[in-house]
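Q: May I have one protein plus its fold?
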Amino acid sequence: KQWYQRRVAITAGETSQPKAPFISYFSCVGRVMSSICYPVLGVVFLLLGLTSGYNLVDKGDPAHHPSCLTLCSGSTPPDTWSEYGGNAYVDVDIKFCKFVTVPVVTTSLRGESQHWLTRGAGSIYNINNHSFRVYVEKDNQAYTEARLYQWSLQYTAVGYIC
């Protein structure tokens, strides 16, 4: 398996109409406010941006030009977990995204097994424009299982680069 981080920039625009009408941000938010919905949205935005020229919409931060809004996405290697009382945490470096403000981050946990039984993968700690941390808990076994089952944290961050 190849593990990597890739920065994908999607320019901000003035339209909120996706090129694929069957995908709607509001239908996801309206139905489910969960840790599953937001990572899925991140992937949807990423795919739309790569395949159909989808534009991120800037809701109006007067301190930044709309064209500075960028989406940055990546995945941590499975061997980057640290132990915390039997559970696990991972520090995610997002310096390569070159954010000048603290981004909005969504995360999801990927692995070969048992990751669906965890708690905390969607909770972001110590966030700044260069990094953030996520703690994962599973009956004081998360650290062992993270390494055994090759868990990785996938993330999508949206923020300003200028």
Remarks:
- The chain has a mean pLDDT of 76.
- Helices lie at 25-31, 37-52, 142-148.
- The chain is about 20% helix and 30% strand.
